[in-house]
Write a structure and sequence with these properties.
Layout: E1 2-7, H1 11-21, E2 26-31, E3 35-41, E4 47-54, E5 60-63, E6 67-72, H2 73-80, E7 87-94, E8 99-106, E9 112-118, H3 129-133, E10 139-142, H4 145-156, E11 161-167, E12 171-178, E13 181-188, E14 194-197, E15 201-206, H5 207-213, E16 220-227, E17 233-239, E18 244-249
Antiparallel strand pairs: 1-5, 1-7, 2-3, 2-6, 3-4, 4-18, 7-8, 8-9, 10-14, 10-16, 11-12, 11-15, 12-13, 16-17, 17-18
């Protein structure tokens, strides 16, 4: 088993790894002849994510047989931070090496840098991503990421929780309450890029995990959010230059009320 992945600019890969490393410590890279996939759940089982980038969205992609490798994301993030925006990034893996090789090269220059990162053994539990992806949500909207960032910063003044309410045929209400007072941020349907809000739904979500995933906003082309009362918040980030990140965040409730098929605790 072996593979080669290459991107002519480092920006997107750097942004992905920086964001994911703030949420999860270790993950599995699954590289198949058709796509590159990361599926992971944070240690506290509060959020779950799936990143997929198709073969055609890489500038070079070689893989004849599926490979699965375990990596420490914090270490990978430190390596990728050494690249500049106009560096090409190539990741190579050969099964006999038990490590990946990361090559950075400046376009138009003769300078080349190579790093290696040892693989790790992962004790992975089954992640019920397919069950979550099957859930039908009654409210879906496409939003400018800046609106969500504003709501999070407003809410931080008061608590560590952002309340969301999608009002049927009207729009969204973000709110937060604390000892010093409360805030409310209203968006009408006209403020949203797209919206399909067929019933009123509510949820309360951790600001810590929302802030962590929104680090990816700078490389996001389109953000779709889905809300369903007593269910995980669903966020789909369509990334620049291709790629999709599905992110599920468990609500802050006394007792999880999901169907058994959704997740055990998530």
């Amino acid at each position: 088993m072996s593979f080669t992945l290459k991107l002519d600019t480092s920006r997107v890969l750097k942004g992905i790894v920086e964001t994911l490393s703030s949420i999860i410590d270790e993950t599995e890279f699954k590289v198949s002849p058709k796509e590159f996939v990361i599926t992971a759940m944070d240690p506290s089982r509060i959020c779950l994510l799936k990143l997929s980038i198709k073969k055609e969205n890489f500038d070079d992609y070689k893989c004849s047989k599926e490979s699965k490798i375990g990596l420490n994301l914090d270490d990978l993030d430190k390596i990728l931070k050494r690249s500049s925006a106009d560096d090409t990034i190539e990741i190579d893996f050969k099964e006999t090496d038990q490590k990946i090789k990361i090559t950075m090269e400046r376009v138009g220059k003769n300078r080349k840098r190579t790093f290696s990162l040892t693989l790790i053994d992962l004790d992975r539990e089954e992640i019920p991503m397919e069950n979550l992806l099957k859930i039908e949500y009654p409210t879906n909207w496409v939003i400018d990421t800046e609106f969500l960032v504003e709501a999070i910063r407003d809410a931080e003044i008061y608590s560590e929780i952002l309340n969301m309410k999608a009002v049927a045929n009207e729009g969204l209400i973000f709110s937060s309450t604390g000892q010093i007072g409360e805030m409310e941020y209203n968006l009408s349907a006209e403020d949203l890029i797209e919206s399909e809000i067929s019933e009123t739904c509510t949820g309360a979500y951790s600001l810590t995990f929302l802030k962590a995933i929104l680090k990816i906003a700078s490389i996001t082309e389109k953000l779709e959010i889905s809300l369903k009362t007593d269910h995980p918040l669903k966020m789909i980030f369509n990334l620049l230059e291709g790629g999709e990140l599905n992110y599920f965040l468990a609500p802050r409730v006394e007792e999880a009320e999901f169907d058994d098929d959704d997740m055990d605790e998530f």
